[in-house]
Structures are given as C-alpha cells and as structure tokens.
Write a structure and sequence with these properties.
Rossmann fold, GMP Synthetase, Chain A, domain 3, 3 domains, five-stranded mixed β-sheet, 13 helices, cytoplasm, metal-binding, OBG_GTPase, GTP-binding
Length: about 550
Amino acid sequence: MSDFVDRVTVHVKGGDGGNGSAGIRREKYKPLAGPNGGNGGDGGSVIFVADRNATSLLDYRFMPHRVAGNGTMGLGDNKDGSKGEDLILPVPCGTVVFSAKGAQGGERRPGDQLADLRHEGDRFVVAAGGSGGLGNIALANRTRRAPGFALLGELGEERDVILELKSIADVALVGFPSAGKSSLIAAISAAKPKIADYPFTTLVPNLGVVIAGDRRYTIADVPGLIPGASQGKGLGLEFLRHIERTEIIAHVIDCATLEPDRDPISDYEALEHELAEYAGSLDLPLGAIPIPERPRVIILNKADMPEAEELAEFVKPEFEAKGFPVFVISTASHKGLKELNFALSEMVVKMREEVAERERAEEEARVVIKPLEQEGRRRRRADEGGNALDFTVERKENANGEFWYEVLGAKPERWVMQTNFDNDEAVGYLADRLAKLGVEDELRRKGAHPGDEVRIGRGNRAVAFDWDPTISAGAEMLDGTQLGARGKDLRLEEQDTRAHRRTNAERRREYHEMMDARAAVREAMMAERKAGHWADPSIDDDRHDEHSLFGRGEGAEE
C-alpha cells in the first residue's frame, strides 16, 4: 500500500458552545437575591494550517472525522464557562480545500474552493465553533430584573470537505513512462523512489530536496505521462495537478527507447501538447506563472549507451535552436548531473524572485475592501433586533396538499437553537424576539392564520410549531394586563411581593379602596357615638361580653 495520499474527504465539526447558567444568588436572610448565572464558553474551531513538515494527507484517510472541543457550561456566582480547545490540523503546503458535493455515503467530488494553503503558516478556519449561551445575568435588564432562564449554546459548524494536495516544488520532472525520472531524482537527492524497468513504476509523486553549494531546492518526480493524459488516460489528471505549482518544467527524454514512432522531438511535442491541453482548464493562484510561460529544461537521458549518446548529440542543436537549455546525462554513470544540478539551482533563484515580484504587483493592484469591524466572534446583545431583511418567509406545500410556512434567516435560526423549550419563560422570550424582528408581521403578510404550521430552520435543526400570534408574541395576558417585564422569576415573586412594580391604574385603584375603607370606618364610629356607645367607660354596655372592659360578663357575679 502506498504511503502517499493526495486527495481525501474529511468530516469536520466545530465544538458546541456551552449552555448559559440560570443561577440565583444566595445571601443571608435573602435566599433568592437575584440572578448570577454566567455565560457558557465558546466551542473550539477546526483549523487547517500549512506545515512544511507534513508531506502527505495519509493521516486524514485513516482518521477522516475531526471534532474540536466543546465549551463548558456557565456556573453561578457569575462564572463564565471555559472555551473549547481549537483543533489545529497540519496539512502540506499546496493543499487546496474544497467543499464536498454529492450524496452522503456516495461518491463525493470537489465543489467550491474554500482555501488555498500555499505558504508555510497559512491558516483556514474550516468549521467554526458555536457561541456559548448567555447566562441570566446577561439577560437581565431594567424590565427583566430576574430572568429564570438562560440561553443554550450554539452548535458548532459541521461540514464535509475535500483536501487536494498540489505539490509545491521548484522543478517538476515530466516525461514518458520509464524515461528515467525516478532514477534522476534518486541520483541527485536523498529520495528513494521505486525504480523498475516497466512502465508506470511510479504511481505517486516523489519529492526530493537537492543541495547545490549553499542553495537548496525541491524537485518533483511526476508519474509518467502519455498522449491523452489531459483527458484522463493513463494516470491522467490524478497527477497532472502536481505540476500546477512548480516553477520550472524539466523534460526527461529517453534517448534509448526501442519503441517505433518515438524519438526525442516527437516525445517533447507530445508532452507539450498534453501540458497545453491541461493548462487551458486551470485557475491559477495569485502571482502564479501560466504553464506555457514557465521555463523549460531539456534533459536527454541514458547517455551511458553509445546509441543513446549519439542520438542525444544529434538532437541537441535542434532543442537549443528553440531557446531551451539542454543537458545530456546518464543516471547510471552520473554523467552531466553536476552541471544539471547547478544550472537548475540558478534557474530556481531567478524564478523565485520573479514569482515574488508578481505576487507583490498583484497585491498592490488588487482592491481590498475591509469591513469596519474585524471578522470574528462577538458577544451578541440578548435583545438583538433587526428588520425584515434579516429573514425570509415562504409558503411551502407537499404533494399531499399539506402546507406550512418556512422561516429562514441567520437570526431566527440561531435564536431557535438557543432556546430551551422546556422553560415557558424562555419560549416567551423567543416569541418576543421574533415579534420584535418582524416575523409575525411577515407571516400575516404572507397569509398565515392562527393554527398554521410554522417551521424555523432547515433539515434536522428545524423547529415546527402551530402559530398562535396572541400567545407567541407575549404582548398581553388573558385579562389584558400589559407584560412590561417578561422574564420575571416567580421564585422571587413569592419571596418578595414588592418585586412587582404597580401600574398607575393599580395605584389609583388601591388608593380609592383605601379611602373608601377609611370613610366606612368613620361612618361606623360616628353611628356608635350617636348611639351612646363608649360614652362612660364605667358602664358595661354588653353584660354578655365576657371580654368587656371590666371583664364583667353575664354571670360573672355568680
């Protein structure tokens, strides 16, 4: 089994955010002294990082599922939960990240390009962690002084991606099968590729590091190409992509081949035709040099055989006439390898300078629009509102005639995931947020009636309920009392009745009741006075009252 993997499908998931806490502060003589629940910790993110020490995607073939750490739950005493640990995944330089298209469990193919990790240290957050839920102390405000609920943490982002490695080497060796490319890279570097005398011995690209004096560069041995490779023949497109990022293309031509209708010139033209066909479909990265414009080097191999050396010397002037540097070498006897090594080193230095200059010019010419705030996770306000542009409402219907209203939008979907539906107070808070956002008005405009099914979100994360605008809005109670402080903690209400702030109507009603009670007492006392009651304290008015002033009830003298 080969230990080189250049395309894998990986399932990544960011960590879930921790739930907020609905804790209540305890003090002496005040068992319920107010909210003090902390916020949940944010979930960790899955991050791909380009690393020169990584040479293959083999690890992701055997471990394709990668999950970041979850955030912890908030605690009482205003203690926030801890953040989940980010998962840093090293990938080789030259790795391109694509979204995965295709049915789950079936063949997956690359979709949109998400990132191109070309340089050492390039990072890409492929799956962001979920935000932690707000605790009840963060939900408290002037009208909601003691929330008895907290928000749940958001789920981390989850997706399938395809990693595709496009080797970044300074020099690419291209040629027909058995042209001697593997022997050449083994002779000038420490790479140990498989070498045999049959076609397609090299099934995977081999990378080698070459040292020429005080310089070093990398060289890639690309598997053999044949006519039609750009259409998928032979190893085809599986390995043509490995020359996309190379700066110099070196043609290794077999001068000792015994196959009919083959000679160094026709081999070169056939290979250039395949490269031109493949280059037409490429979307090169910033600052890259198109394949037809990259410098070529002609390497006439197997000169240790007399017939091959004679043929090499014969065709060498024809290649030089095209403007190509030509080297006659033998990997068996090491003839001409030193000259080739230093010549390639000089070309690599020049190409690196040219590529760097191109990248700087492209960066200066490119218009970059930066947002006012740096992109990143921020703590959202608990009562964050919005407008009708933040969501969409559509009427859906299936083949059975069943219909529902689908609400989609970043805010409604996030709010639904944050809601604990076992807590009526939390459900009412969600209803108030949706009403403030304008969801109810939009449902009415779309023709929804009380009792119709409404779904917020899509897929497994969708929440369905029967729409009742009177209850879901949380704007009034059955008796018409305005709910000015949704989110009241009933436990605090039971302990301290003064926690309820009276309305002006309640104050007037209580005042009139108190004044009426005082007037009634005055009238009763005046009636008793006119009747002569309590005129003389020595007179016992009620002889049957054993609890009279002098304690002389009827029968007391007996």
